[in-house]
Amino acid sequence: MTKKLCGTNYPLSICFIVVNEFCERFSYYGMKALLTLYFLTYLGWDPDLSTAIYHAFSSLCYFTPILGAIIADSWLGKFKTIIYLSVVYVIGHVVKSVGAIPTVGNKDVHIALSMLGLILIALGTGGIKPCVAAFGGDQFEEEHVSERQKFFSIFYMSINAGSLLSTIITPILRSDVQCFGDDCYALAFGVPAILMIVALVVFIAGSSLYKRNPPQGNILLQVCNCIGFAIKNRVNRHKYDPPRKHWLDWAEDKYSKRLIQEIKMVLRVLLLYIPLPMFWALFDQQGSRWTLQATRMNMAFGGSVSIKPDQMQMLNALLILVFVPIFDLGIYPLIGLCRVNITPLRKMATGMIFAALAFGAATLVEINVMKTVVVPAPAGSCLLQVYNLAENDVTVKVPDTSLFPHPIPNLQDPPQYEMIPLGAPGKQIKVEVTHNGTTSTCDLLFKEEEAYSLIIYKNTSGVMCKLVEDNIRKHDEGKPFLRFLNTQPEAINITVGKAEFSVEPGYSITPNQTVDRGVYADVSCSTQSRTCSDLNLGLLDFGASYTFILKQEKDKIEAHKMIDVNASDVHITWQIPQYALMTAGEVMFSITGLEFSYSQAPANMKSVLQAGWLLTVAFGNVIVLIVAEGAGLEQWKEFLLFMGLLLAVCIIFSVMAHFYTYVDPDQLQKMHREDLYKEDDDEDDEKYDKKMKNNDIHLKKAEKTTKL
């Protein structure tokens, strides 16, 4: 007899299943939130490759549920499938965490372990995806309809709670905890690994309480075999046999007319799935391109409070918890009162429009973000700015150009980089510098696609030139870069936060280092002979690059701030509209799409439609993978491209939806009755209706979780 929670009809076993799902979703989304920045900062990949691998992993996570469903339905059953694939899942997390430890091998080892871990995680999370929710529904008796419905609501909440908490916590573990001298990815990946171990232990702990249904055979394989037989039979016999009304009718030699009719109904729905991957191509970029966009924005709230760029993904989980009741209890009933016939397919098309508008908003944000970015020089050119550290104004002349037409004042922050055409990968240029009426020539070597600062200073022998390479790329996590140039005759040691700078004498310059964003008003410095007065560096803001000129002013050393790359002044809150639009699109597209699909197919074909739905997500990520690696567009143009593609697909989908004829529920009911009770002529309608009601609630509620 099934054990119940005290005083209720809820099986005690569902407690273990809900906790298992919370921990599993925490582990998955906590790990996934870090991936893009992990690829950029730890593995050193460029943004396009990082985006491509992120979406390749996401795609694999939605291909593997087909494998999990086949294993569960054909051989092992749901319980054993969840156990075995969860073990694979745990191993993947552990391997991924070990790959994030800097002392374990070299970069090639880190990449190999990371990729192996991601493959195992994809097999685990995808394999158990079609099993857990349905296994939870199996625990209830058929007559406990309301209890089952409430269970799926709790189950869905546990998914979103795990997602929300993990996308807040794991970025904090990554950034605020330091290990091995840098961001602690090993810990940030290790905590999700621990949660997945907890998920497995909790699930196993409830083993004696579970109600386990034996494997019933996989309808997906039967459908594929029927379709394959029809195609083969048509190719081999169409010249000899009379034509058939439908190409699937060629399978009548081996399969029942009922099965063929059911497959025809399913294929009509699957045909509508063809345009759907484009929606997921936009939706899943929240964890890739939108996270990269966030790294180039101002993430400060108030004086010292700021968020991490990978934490913005929490908005989707948070907003969906808010939007679902708003749409179900407010917007949809209001539309109904206005006597507007909004069919499921129209809702889905509207969801596509919302997603396209989200990328329109992302495009506007990106255009403004780009104003704070220094565009790299193209091939055959380089960038140059000038620091005048001489006592008076200087005039700089670059041969065959009209650059720097006005005198450059002493210690003036250069307004911008100027582009110098080289016409070759490298070129020696004689730059003329005039100071106090005396002209000197500096013979300098410039390389294409580089950015330089020309430092002009004066010593006992006259005006001197020093050419240094600059970093114009914003930090992958939005931190500020800074470096120090020493004009003093002795070395100076400076500590800025956790960063240590040792500046050699004689106009030497340190390499760029990152520090946390903040106000640095009392920075300690020292020389071999004395301790400097504390330096006031002021605000070091998100995404900026600074050069500080250390110069003697009266009786102390002052730090003069030069801004090489402007700070990111577009605030992160400007991403909220695009997240809100995308989440609204998800509510109208994803949930409605699942409900439509299951209302239009026979009960025993719902797993086939689930497989088809998950494949649309997989192929959507493949689209992003192709565009990220192949298009080579500026980011705002890429956003605009995706927006245009989705609007075009929305038009195609709307035309297809216009010609779609909804299945009559009475026809489905008749087919369901024949399918379920074909061997029992005495089955009464009341018993059938009750059983079908239970079955439909179970399937619809369970499959709402497939997106997550």
UniProtKB/TrEMBL annotation:
Coiled coil: none
Tree of life domain: Eukaryota
UniProt KW keywords: Membrane, Peptide transport, Protein transport, Symport, Transmembrane, Transmembrane helix, Transport
Listed Pfam families: PTR2
Annotated compartments: Apical cell membrane; Membrane
Membrane topology summary: Multi-pass membrane protein
GO cellular component, one term: apical plasma membrane
GO BP, one annotated term: protein transport
Molecular functions (GO terms): oligopeptide transmembrane transporter activity; symporter activity
PROSITE patterns noted in UniProt: PTR2_1, PTR2_2
Keyword Lyase: no
The keyword Transport is annotated on this UniProt entry: yes
Residues that span the membrane, as ranges: 26-45, 51-71, 83-105, 111-132, 153-173, 185-206, 265-283, 314-335, 347-365, 608-628, 640-663
Subunit structure: Interacts (via extracellular domain region) with trypsin.
Record-linked NCBIfam families: 2A1704 (TIGR00926)
Family label: Belongs to the major facilitator superfamily. Proton-dependent oligopeptide transporter (POT/PTR) (TC 2.A.17) family.
UniProt name for this protein: Solute carrier family 15 member 2-like
Lineage: Eukaryota, Metazoa, Chordata, Craniata, Vertebrata
